[in-house]
């Protein structure tokens, strides 16, 4: 099964110029791949660099060495070397990312936050809102909240809006950073179902999950990031 | 594993990416006597992209915008623009008439001070309709109707179409300025601190409007701002300027989340989170 | 004490050459404002110095001069200027339009149709039609050069927005020869159509602003308007109380303290001629003049 995502010898460190140029290594020689229809979970203790790996794949972080290849037939793009507009195009159609915390934009209703990825890739407003609405409903976000900006929502409500936003499109690669962290059991189960449904549709999923039950329910493979950690 | 040689930086989605850039800036340089305004600024902008230019006072970002808008003569460098007919032309090679027509139809410029970008003694409708009249619209009813629909779009009550901007608040004046610029469906909009001087709640409303308009109309925009939050909200790409030079550029979230240059790190860390 | 003598028509020959050169340029570019070095004249600015300089430059010893002010030959200004030229040029003067070869006018076009043998000289206060919206001279020159006249229609738009119709009653902007937008001087818009395809040469002089412009004979002059608010001639709802004319521009004259008034032709020569040739049939005072 050909991979959707190939991470090859990726290394990253932060150089803190404001602290005299001290270098904080994060990860070294990270290599793994994720195929269509499989869910790979990154494991390891907090701070080991799991989120950083997801961000490098999405393009939010730079990587110092190595390659991150996204296969989206008939093309393949190395995110670590791509031009900003190529990454923007990738994010529209290929890679969706559910971050740990929702970045709330002022004045935008929850339903529009969730619908936005579809609008960005060209769907009509009504159609996008409909899909976003049904996802929010599935995630138990009540009707009355959908027209309100999420800035005042609880952590769990915000996260569900974030998840809807990540799942509303048809992106072949899904990156999930602690999708169930602030959710109760019902909603955790709902998210697990969403993930499995996408797996069946052939989406490649790379996730960070601490909850062992959720992990067992979705993971096809585990990758222990400790193996790529650099010495402190 | 696939052969690394085979994997090159191929174009992602030909149908999606425009074939050619909309705007190409090459080596833009401006000296004010011996004082440097900006130096060697080069970038490409594609249709539908929003580029934020951030920096502190004296960084050269406003000079850059004025060079692009033709308000200042450049010391060296050139600006190439792809016109509506598909031809890419050096702006300096256009006749003045062509250039002024371009700025009135295909480009917009939203000034920081709305009183400079509007005719304060002319009604809102006249302000919005002016560009239409300048390109030959001669039917009063249709001009008025178009003005009304744009006022509505920028959330100004169309009933106020006959009032002059003197009676408008700062935020309303800025929204009127946006309508005035967008009425001829420009493909590129330059903005100089569009939220400068406005109250925070007013800023939020304006940014929201800009975000939606940029998305709905597929505008390309260059937004000069000192406010990183504005950059994050509106732009996909960012250029950080200091002392007249571009010291870092790239994806907005990448530059703001993982700044590489010392100055960028300083800038990002200086913002007090709310 | 010997009598002071003046050069023919007061101005020295070099000055007249300079003005004529400006006039030639103006005629070559209909509607374009040509700067000229306006001279000190023996009348203050605002009293027709521009018109007087143009007249002085084109006047010859065989010319017959007529001077009108708001259509009348007998107002103070008209009389003064006529006497001025009689003294300094020794030319014959007349109040009859069809006899004159040079007609200097302030703010009116004669009702009588003009011929190819005549020159009409207008006195202009502010020559720049764009001045009201654009105070910078550098910018208005650019706008004319690039034919950027959108702002003129903004003015007309504002009129309609505020008054329901284009309310500009005089100095109504026109487009000359499909190129330059021009201020026809503060003549009533009633007179604008007379400028179109006129057989006479029309010259415009602004002394204080130092500009000369011209409309050659048989030139297209179109008043600016909108498709759905076309230019309309002002129609009086009255006839002249003295001569009965229904097609001339009328002045309203208050005749008593009780609001009584009558309407008479503004063009005094026209009215007189009509009275001479037809049996007078004084009409009762008409109703208000209004837009058609």
Quick structural gist:
The complex is a heterotrimer of chains A (232), B (274) and C (292). With 232 residues, chain A is α/β, with parallel strands linked by helices. Helix content of chain A is 36%, strand content 27%.
- Uncertain segments of chain C of ≥5 residues (pLDDT<50)? 286-292
Distance between the termini of chain A: 37 Å
The sequence of SSEs of chain C as H and E is HEHEHEEEHHEEHEEEEEH
Number of helices of chain C: 7
Number of strands of chain C: 12
Q: Main beta sheet of chain A, described?
A: 5 strands, parallel
Mean pLDDT of chain C: 91
Roughly what is the average pLDDT of chain A, rounded to an integer? 91
Main beta-sheet annotation of chain C: 7 strands, mixed
Overall radius of gyration of chain C: 20 Å
Largest interface: A-B, 38 and 34 residues
The helix/strand class of chain A is: alpha/beta
Please give a structural write-up:
The complex is a heterotrimer of chains A (232), B (274) and C (292). Chain A has eight helices and nine strands. Chain A has helices at 50-58, 84-93, 110-120, 125-138, 143-146, 155-167, 185-200, 212-218, and strands at 3-16, 22-35, 39-43, 65-72, 75-78, 95-98, 173-177, 204-208, 221-224. In chain B, strands 6-7-8-3-9-10 form a six-stranded mixed β-sheet, with helices on both faces. Mean pLDDT of chain B is 88; it is low at 1-17. In chain B, strand 4 and strand 5 (88-90) form a beta hairpin. The longest helix of chain B is centred in the last third of the chain and has 18 residues, at 200-217. With 274 residues, chain B is α/β, with parallel strands linked by helices. In chain B, helix 4 (124-134) packs across helix 5 (140-153) and helix 5 crosses helix 6 (170-182). Chain C has 292 residues and is an alpha/beta fold. A seven-stranded mixed β-sheet of chain C has the order 1-9-8-5-4-2-3. A three-stranded antiparallel β-sheet of chain C has the order 7-6-10. In chain C, strands 11-12 form a two-stranded antiparallel ribbon. In chain C, strand 2, helix 3 (76-89) and strand 3 form a beta-alpha-beta unit. Chain C is globular, with a radius of gyration of 20 Å. The interface between B and C is medium-sized, with 23 and 19 residues.
């Amino acid at each position: 099964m050909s991979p959707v995502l190939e991470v090859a010898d990726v290394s990253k460190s932060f150089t803190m110029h404001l602290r005299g140029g001290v270098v904080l290594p994060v990860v070294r020689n990270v290599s793994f791949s994720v195929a269509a229809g499989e869910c790979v979970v990154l494991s390891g203790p907090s701070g080991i660099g799991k989120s950083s790996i997801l961000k490098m794949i999405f393009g939010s972080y730079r990587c110092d060495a190595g390659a991150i290849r996204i296969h989206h037939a008939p093309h393949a793009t190395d995110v670590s070397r791509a031009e900003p507009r190529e990454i923007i195009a990738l994010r529209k159609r290929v890679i969706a990312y559910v971050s740990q915390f929702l970045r709330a934009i002022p004045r935008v209703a929850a339903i529009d936050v969730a619908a936005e990825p579809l609008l960005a890739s060209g769907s009509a407003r009504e159609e996008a809102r409909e899909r976003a609405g049904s996802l929010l409903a599935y995630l138990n976000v009540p009707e009355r909240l959908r027209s309100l900006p999420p800035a005042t929502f609880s952590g769990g409500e915000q996260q569900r809006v974030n998840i809807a936003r990540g799942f509303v499109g048809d992106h072949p690669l899904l990156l999930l950073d602690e999708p169930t962290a602030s959710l109760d059991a019902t909603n955790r189960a709902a998210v697990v179902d969403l993930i499995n449904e996408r797996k069946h549709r052939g989406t490649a999923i790379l996730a960070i999950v601490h909850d062992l039950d959720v992990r067992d329910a979705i993971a096809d493979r585990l990758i222990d990031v400790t193996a790529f950690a650099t010495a402190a | 594993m696939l052969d690394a040689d085979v994997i090159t930086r191929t174009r992602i989605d030909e149908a999606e990416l425009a074939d050619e850039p909309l705007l190409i800036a090459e080596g833009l340089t401006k000296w004010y006597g011996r004082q440097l305004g900006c130096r060697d600024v080069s970038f490409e902008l594609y249709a539908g992209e929003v580029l934020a230019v951030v920096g502190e006072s004296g960084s050269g970002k406003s000079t850059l915008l004025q060079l692009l808008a033709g308000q200042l003569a450049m010391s060296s460098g050139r600006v190439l623009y792809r016109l509506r007919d598909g031809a890419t032309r050096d702006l300096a090679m256009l006749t003045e008439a062509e250039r002024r027509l371009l700025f009135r139809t295909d480009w917009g410029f939203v000034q920081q001070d709305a009183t400079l970008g509007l005719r304060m003694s002319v009604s809102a409708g006249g302000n919005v309709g002016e560009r239409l009249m300048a390109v030959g619209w001669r039917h009063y009813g249709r001009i008025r109707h178009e003005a009304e629909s744009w006022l509505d779009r920028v959330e100004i009550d169309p009933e106020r179409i006959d009032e002059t901007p003197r009676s408008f608040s700062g935020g309303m004046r800025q929204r009127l300025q946006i309508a005035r610029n967008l009425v001829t469906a420009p493909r590129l909009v330059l903005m100089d601190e569009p939220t400068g001087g406005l109250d925070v709640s007013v800023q939020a409303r304006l940014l929201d409007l800009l975000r939606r308009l940029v998305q709905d109309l597929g505008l390309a925009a260059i937004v000069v701002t000192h406010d990183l939050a504005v950059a994050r909200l509106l732009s996909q790409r960012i250029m950080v300027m200091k002392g007249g030079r571009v010291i870092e550029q790239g994806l907005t979230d990448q530059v703001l989340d993982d700044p590489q240059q010392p100055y960028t790190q300083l800038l990002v860390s200086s913002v007090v989170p709310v | 004490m010997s009598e002071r003598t003046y050069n023919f028509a007061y101005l020295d020959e070099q000055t007249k050459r300079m003005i004529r050169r400006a006039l030639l340029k103006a005629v070559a570019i209909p509607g374009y404002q040509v700067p000229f070095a306006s001279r000190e004249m023996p009348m203050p600015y605002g009293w027709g110095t521009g018109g007087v300089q143009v007249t002085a430059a084109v006047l010859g010893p065989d010319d017959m001069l007529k001077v009108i002010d708001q259509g009348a030959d007998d107002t103070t200004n008209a009389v003064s200027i006529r006497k001025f030229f009689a003294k300094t040029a020794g030319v014959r003067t007349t109040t009859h339009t069809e006899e004159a070869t040079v007609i200097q006018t302030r703010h009116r076009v004669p009702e009588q149709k003009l011929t190819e043998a005549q020159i009409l000289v207008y006195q202009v206060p502010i020559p720049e039609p764009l001045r009201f919206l654009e105070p910078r001279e550098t910018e208005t020159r650019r706008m004319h050069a690039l034919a950027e006249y959108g702002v003129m229609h903004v003015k007309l738009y504002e009129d309609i927005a505020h008054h329901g119709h284009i309310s500009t009653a005089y100095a109504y902007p026109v487009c000359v020869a499909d190129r330059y937008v021009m201020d026809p001087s503060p003549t009533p818009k009633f007179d604008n159509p007379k400028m179109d395809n006129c057989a006479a040469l029309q010259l415009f002089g602004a002394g204080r602003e130092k500009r000369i412009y011209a409309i050659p004979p048989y030139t297209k002059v179109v008043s600016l308007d909108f498709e759905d608010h076309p230019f309309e001639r002002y129609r009086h709802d009255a006839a002249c109380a003295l001569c009965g004319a229904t097609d001339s521009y009328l002045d309203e004259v208050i005749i008593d303290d009780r609001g009584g008034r009558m309407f008479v032709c503004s063009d005094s020569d026209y009215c007189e001629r009509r009275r001479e040739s037809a049996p007078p049939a004084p009409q009762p005072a008409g109703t208000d003049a209004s837009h058609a």
